[in-house]
């Protein structure tokens, strides 16, 4: 009877475990981690962490084994999944299990802390939610169908084929036959780290191009891998943002940050590796574009490209632009990064109307970190770091690196040694071990010779409890991006905050008459920095680095009658797939995910959304897809106020303008049903080129193979979903043609918000269109005041079926 009762209880327990929700818990244990293990010592050069010694490697294995034995002895088999073992600076582990199971760990021998991972709330990469993608996916038949039938090509640094974002889904097998027998004909090139099985149906094709790289430099075979494999991480990040699988868990250093999904999670991926760690050449990029067009990709993602305009020709006639024009001509939508040279004007590197130049913004998510001082002050900062032991309840000796420098050390007395924590041999281990150490963001960081990787290395070698990288008032505020720290740490980028820390430290630090410290009384702790906050953060905000317009015709920066960038998308602090080799970002080495920023990250958002529009409207041309996103974009943020932009000064905002965000922030839900579109073809682009000032028809013929049989009166006559005039004097008339792509007739009313110094009228003031019917709009602009800078307005077409079509106006008035 007793045995039967125990059996029933066991069955009930198992059923309960199956039904219970699992969460992630952090468990810290007694026992020294590798960095502080008895007998550990630095390497002979003084720079390498001693955890690579034979004894340390053995101790690390012992800790991992002890974690496994502990879990096996306490928890029911099959009730948990150990995510990571912490063994270098903390002894413990992260475990995915139920609340009832984790209760068995509390109070266990050697257990110091059990804490629920508050980051378990599902937030994805967040940009899908911020953009309203679940509603878009619903219209496409759900996330399991969103992007089905579309191939997105990525010319980049390759791909990490074993990443779960690109895994084969046996429950929903890809429809490979649809691609191989219809419009797509790519192939799979194999090589080191990239076997034939890498092309699994999600990755439908992969190639690499290296002839230019081989010619331009002596390649390093350890990192310049001759296969489509991505050793950098950039290409994987871009591909997963556009087309990564749905709901992939993001776990870094044992912490669960949510689930990542691409914009079009069922789209297929075609990889064209053309950039290598040692060198990247335009030759390889163009060869990749050429092959992608031949293979038949639907969407081409170019998060790479020239950093400067072509020499001795107009910007629209450079080789890169012409290749993109050919891709457009072949029916391929091209999304191109606008560049990372902002916030100054004339910095865009996306020039042409046949590619969509993408600017970058942030979202409403932040990762606030904190430094807790002994007097109760809490200083905000940045860093994806776990807390120091005790989660702020325990505080540790606060030491400035300047005061911990060895008095008689044989090294230069320069900032990297004495205050930037770059060299462990410069600091006295008896002072800094077990302490929170203040390092300073000084000259080495500004000139690029110092880095965070070295700070973390020093902290590991010398056994810091945590580090603080604080602004130097002599240099001003610095820009800090959240980076995963494998040990507790925080960046304090504002000088006002750094001065608060400095005042507290000096008040609590006692010195002799020579200025040497005789007692450290200051205390501090690193707070949790990995939990996202959505506390009414203003978004979107145009990122500081995002390149700005106006667009320009030549290297002398003569402005062009064309709006660039075209559109704004999330590109700041984006979680996506990464390559664990991470050869150009050592601080991210070993990670499968990375949180990084750039217009490179914004571009695949647009590429993925374009794939969904193409799936919904297979016959649409690239310009129609671009128009749908442009005319439905928003100029307002989540507070209902005009979009703001980061400026030159750190942490300052000003009202953004079309030369920062193009038509506005992309709205995928409305882009699927734009009502009207502006369609532009290859011949129209030739007419645009032929209407440029001082045009040489022969150069256009040589560059494009086309002729100047037809020209516009002005380049501004190109049928774009915007109007940009860089030298408006007197009066000008231009035209736009719209097409009704809705399935019902609709009546539109025209309204105008004119730019300063200009009156604008639209004829006809209202019109009715049947499905697929077109309407010519005559737009008349008259100068009323000559201004010294561009002014902005818009034309708004409001439909009787609730479609709203916006046409941005950008005008620079001049005297006759």
Descriptive account of the structure:
This protein is an alpha/beta fold. The longest helix is centred in the N-terminal third of the chain and has 21 residues, at 54-74. The protein is built from 22 helices and 36 strands. It starts with a helix and ends with a strand. Strand 7 and strand 8 form a beta hairpin. The chain has 5 domains: 21-116, Alpha-Beta Plaits; 136-364 and 538-615, Peptidase S8/S53 domain (Rossmann fold); 368-526, Glucose Oxidase, domain 1, CATH 3.50.30; 681-718, no CATH class; 719-813, Immunoglobulin-like.
Q: Can you describe this structure in just a few lines?
A:
The chain is α/β, with parallel strands linked by helices.
User: Strand portion, in percent?
Assistant: 15-25%
Mean pLDDT: 86
Question: What profile does the largest beta sheet have?
Answer: 7 strands, parallel
Helix content: 10-25%
Name the structural class: alpha/beta
CATH topology of the largest domain: Rossmann fold
Low-confidence stretches: 4-18, 39-52, 117-125, 177-181
CATH architecture label name of the largest domain: 3-Layer(aba) Sandwich
Number of strands: 36
User: N-to-C terminal Cα separation, in Å?
Assistant: 105 Å
Please state the CA-atom Rg, rounded to the nearest Å. 29 Å
Main CATH class of the largest domain: Alpha Beta
Instruction: Write out the strand line-up for the largest beta sheet, numbering strands in chain order.
Output: 6-9-5-10-11-12-23
GO cellular component, one term: extracellular region
GO biological process, one term: plant epidermis development
Active site: 156, 234, 600
Domain Peptidase S8/S53: 147-637
């Amino acid at each position: 009877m007793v045995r039967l009762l125990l059996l029933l209880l066991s069955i009930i327990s198992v059923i309960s475990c199956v039904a219970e929700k699992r969460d992630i818990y952090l468990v810290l244990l007694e026992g020294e981690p590798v960095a502080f293990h008895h007998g550990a010592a630095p390497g002979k050069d003084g720079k390498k962490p001693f955890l690579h010694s034979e004894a340390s490697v053995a101790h690390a294995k012992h800790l991992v084994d002890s974690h496994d034995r502990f879990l096996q002895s306490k928890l029911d088999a099959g009730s948990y999944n150990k995510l990571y073992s912490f063994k270098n600076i903390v002894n413990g582990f992260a475990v995915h299990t139920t609340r009832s199971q984790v209760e068995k760990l509390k109070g266990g021998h050697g257990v110091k802390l059990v804490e629920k991972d508050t980051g378990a709330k599902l937030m994805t990469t967040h940009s899908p939610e911020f953009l309203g993608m679940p509603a878009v996916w619903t219209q496409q038949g759900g996330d399991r169908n969103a992007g089905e039938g579309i191939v997105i090509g990525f010319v980049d640094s390759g791909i990490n084929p074993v990443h779960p974002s690109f895994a084969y889904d046996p429950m929903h097998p890809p429809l490979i036959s649809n691609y191989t027998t219809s419009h797509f004909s790519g192939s799979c090139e194999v090589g080191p780290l990239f076997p034939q099985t890498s092309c699994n149906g999600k990755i439908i094709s992969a190639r690499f191009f290296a002839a230019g790289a081989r010619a331009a430099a002596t390649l390093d075979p350890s990192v310049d891998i001759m296969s489509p494999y991505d050793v950098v991480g950039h290409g994987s990040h871009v591909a997963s943002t556009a087309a990564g699988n749905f709901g992939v868990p993001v776990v870094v250093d044992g912490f669960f940050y949510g689930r990542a999904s691409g914009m079009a999670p069922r789209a297929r991926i075609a990889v064209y590796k053309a950039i290598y760690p040692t060198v990247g050449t335009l030759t390889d990029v163009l060869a990749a574009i050429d092959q992608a067009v031949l293979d038949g990709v639907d969407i081409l993602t170019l998060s790479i490209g020239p950093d400067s305009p072509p020499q001795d020709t107009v910007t629209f006639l450079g080789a890169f632009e012409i290749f993109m024009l050919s891709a457009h001509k072949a029916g391929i939508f091209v999304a191109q990064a606008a560049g990372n040279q902002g916030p100054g004007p004339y910095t865009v590197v996306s020039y042409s109307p046949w590619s969509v130049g993408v600017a970058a913004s942030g979202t409403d998510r932040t990762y606030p970190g904190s430094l807790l001082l002994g007097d109760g002050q809490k200083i905000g900062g940045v860093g994806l770091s776990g807390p120091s032991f005790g989660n702020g309840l325990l505080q540790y000796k606060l030491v400035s690196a300047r005061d911990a420098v060895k008095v008689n050390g044989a090294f230069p007395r320069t900032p990297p040694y004495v205050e930037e924590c770059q060299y462990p041999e410069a600091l006295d281990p008896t002072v800094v071990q077990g302490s929170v150490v203040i390092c300073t963001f000084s000259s080495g960081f500004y000139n690029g010779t110092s880095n965070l990787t070295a700070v973390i290395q020093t902290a590991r070698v010398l056994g810091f409890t945590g580090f603080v990288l604080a602004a130097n008032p002599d240099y001003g505020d610095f820009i800090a991006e959240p980076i995963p720290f494998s040990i507790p740490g925080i960046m304090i980028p504002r000088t006002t905050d750094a001065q608060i820390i400095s005042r507290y430290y000096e008040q609590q630090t006692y010195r002799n008459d020579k200025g040497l410290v005789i007692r450290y009384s200051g205390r501090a702790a690193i707070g949790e920095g990995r939990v996202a906050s959505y506390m009414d953060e203003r978004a979107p905000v145009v990122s500081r680095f995002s390149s700005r317009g106006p667009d320009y015709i030549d290297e002398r920066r003569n402005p062009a009658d064309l709006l660039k960038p075209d559109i704004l998308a999330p590109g700041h602090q984006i979680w996506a797939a990464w390559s664990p080799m991470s050869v150009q970002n050592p601080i991210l080495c070993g990670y499968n995910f990375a949180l990084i920023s750039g217009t490179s990250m914004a571009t695949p958002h647009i590429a993925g959304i374009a794939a969904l529009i193409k799936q919904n409207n297979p016959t649409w041309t690239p310009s129609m897809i671009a128009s749908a996103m442009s005319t439905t974009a928003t100029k307002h943020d989540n507070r209902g106020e005009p979009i703001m932009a980061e400026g030159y000064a750190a942490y300052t905002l000003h009202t953004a303008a079309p030369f920062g965000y193009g038509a506005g922030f992309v709205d995928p839900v409305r882009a699927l049903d734009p009502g009207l579109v502006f369609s532009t073809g290859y011949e129209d682009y030739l007419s645009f080129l032929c209407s440029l000032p001082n045009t040489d028809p022969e150069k256009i013929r040589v560059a494009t193979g086309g002729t100047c049989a037809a020209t516009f009166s002005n380049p501004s006559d190109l049928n774009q979903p915007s109007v940009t005039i860089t030298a408006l004097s007197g009066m000008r008339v231009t035209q736009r043609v719209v097409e009704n792509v809705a399935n019902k007739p609709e009546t539109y009313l025209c309204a105008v918000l004119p730019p300063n110094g200009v009156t604008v009228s639209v004829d006809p003031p209202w019109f009715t269109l049947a499905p697929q019917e077109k309407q010519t709009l005559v737009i008349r602009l008259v100068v009323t005041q000559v201004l010294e800078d561009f002014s902005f307005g818009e034309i708004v077409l409001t439909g009787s079926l609730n479609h709203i079509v916006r046409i941005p106006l950008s005008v620079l008035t001049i005297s006759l």
